[in-house]
């Protein structure tokens, strides 16, 4: 196995050293560079970050959620995945139906006010339970709009029909592997105003050569400390799953970023991470009896020999 996270660590160092100080939508502030690229050889191992623990179970459930075309957080909550909670919770507390304590700027306030944080966590726990147990509430407030699952599997056309981009690209890889149109996009300008969070990873393209499947992702915006480690592992897993269904070996994952940023309130965490020595990358195990992406369940996907440092917590900017 090899040290695969070096491109990620080098990019963190570059942003901390040369990044531009910028304001942002969340009011937190960032250091940012525009235009960056990381390349990972998937033959050398699975590129999950080892300088901190990355919860692979959350990555699996989120990707399976996307691939099922689901856009409601209920599936995620049922698998103890809270990655998307804040955006659904924000819609709830800003609605006329919400009558609880003031949750304005709950992300930032919970960092500096321990008393408020406790109230916020209690409200979010009640929200999550209602999503899991109340069908009507879940349908209204668990829905995130046309996020990745919808765009990947149910892209709506002008004439009201739907396009399954994932199935289409699988068939094209099988039948026309040298095509330069092996592309899936999540960026639909018409849907941006209604989405809980406009797509950050907006477009990816496959490339077949020497019986190996590679993928390049273009991501318009990347939270380098919290989000990007998830994105790297998620798209690496996607390459493996699509390669399995198309009968190919894996090649490279190339991660291209527009605005690559580190939030001001993540600086200490990044500095701590950069003091740690990375471990060799683990291997990915996929159930050999499964060949189609829609047949995979959580237990069919595992990491072997994932050695990592401890978790480093950081607040999510919403």
TrEMBL record:
Pathway connected to this protein: Pyrimidine metabolism; dTTP biosynthesis
PROSITE patterns in the record: THYMIDYLATE_SYNTHASE
Localization per record: Cytoplasm
Documented EC number(s): 2.1.1.45
Chief localization: cytoplasm
Transmembrane segments: none
GO cellular component annotations of the record: cytosol
Amino acids binding dUMP: 25, 180-181, 220-223, 231, 261-263
GO biological process: dTMP biosynthetic process; dTTP biosynthetic process; methylation
Listed GO MF terms: thymidylate synthase activity
Catalytic reactions of this protein: dUMP + (6R)-5,10-methylene-5,6,7,8-tetrahydrofolate = 7,8-dihydrofolate + dTMP
Residues in coiled coil: none
Active site: 200 (nucleophile), 200
Start and end residues of each Thymidylate synthase/dCMP hydroxymethylase domain: 7-318
Binding site for (6R)-5,10-methylene-5,6,7,8-tetrahydrofolate: 223, 317
UniProt KW keywords: Cytoplasm, Methyltransferase, Nucleotide biosynthesis, Transferase
Protein function: Catalyzes the reductive methylation of 2'-deoxyuridine-5'-monophosphate (dUMP) to 2'-deoxythymidine-5'-monophosphate (dTMP) while utilizing 5,10-methylenetetrahydrofolate (mTHF) as the methyl donor and reductant in the reaction, yielding dihydrofolate (DHF) as a by-product. This enzymatic reaction provides an intracellular de novo source of dTMP, an essential precursor for DNA biosynthesis.
Subunit annotation: Homodimer.
Family the entry assigns: Belongs to the thymidylate synthase family. Bacterial-type ThyA subfamily.
Protein name: Thymidylate synthase
Originating organism: Lactobacillus rodentium
The organism's taxonomic lineage, starting at the top: Bacteria, Bacillati, Bacillota, Bacilli, Lactobacillales
Gene from which the chain derives: thyA
């Amino acid at each position: 196995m090899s040290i695969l996270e070096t491109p990620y660590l080098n990019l963190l160092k570059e942003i901390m050293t040369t990044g531009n100080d910028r304001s942002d939508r969340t009011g937190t502030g960032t250091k940012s560079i525009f235009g960056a690229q990381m390349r990972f050889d998937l033959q050398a191992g699975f590129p999950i970050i080892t300088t901190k623990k990355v919860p692979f179970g959350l990555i699996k459930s989120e990707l399976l959620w996307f691939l099922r075309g689901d856009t409601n957080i209920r599936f995620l909550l049922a698998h103890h995945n809270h990655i998307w909670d804040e955006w659904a919770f924000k819609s709830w507390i800003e609605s006329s139906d919400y009558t609880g304590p003031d949750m304005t700027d709950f992300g930032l306030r919970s960092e500096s006010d321990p008393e408020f944080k406790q109230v916020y966590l209690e409200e979010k726990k009640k929200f999550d339970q209602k999503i899991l147990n109340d069908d009507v509430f879940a349908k209204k407030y668990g829905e995130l709009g046309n996020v990745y699952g919808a765009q990947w599997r149910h892209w709506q056309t002008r004439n009201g029909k739907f396009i399954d981009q994932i199935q289409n690209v699988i068939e094209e890889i099988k039948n026309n592997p040298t095509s330069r149109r092996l592309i899936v996009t999540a960026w639909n300008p018409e849907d941006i105003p209604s989405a809980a969070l406009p797509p950050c990873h907006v477009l990816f393209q496959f490339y077949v050569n020497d019986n190996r499947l590679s993928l390049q992702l273009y991501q318009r915006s990347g939270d380098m400390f919290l989000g990007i480690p998830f994105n790297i592992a998620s798209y690496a897993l996607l390459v493996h799953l699509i390669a399995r269904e198309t009968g190919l070996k894996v090649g490279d994952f190339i991660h291209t970023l527009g605005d690559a940023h580190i939030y001001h309130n993540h600086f200490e965490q990044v500095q701590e991470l950069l003091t740690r020595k990375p471990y060799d990358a683990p291997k990915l195990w996929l159930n050999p009896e499964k060949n189609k992406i829609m047949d995979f369940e959580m237990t069919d996907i595992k990491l072997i020999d994932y050695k990592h440092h401890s978790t480093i917590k950081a607040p999510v900017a919403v």
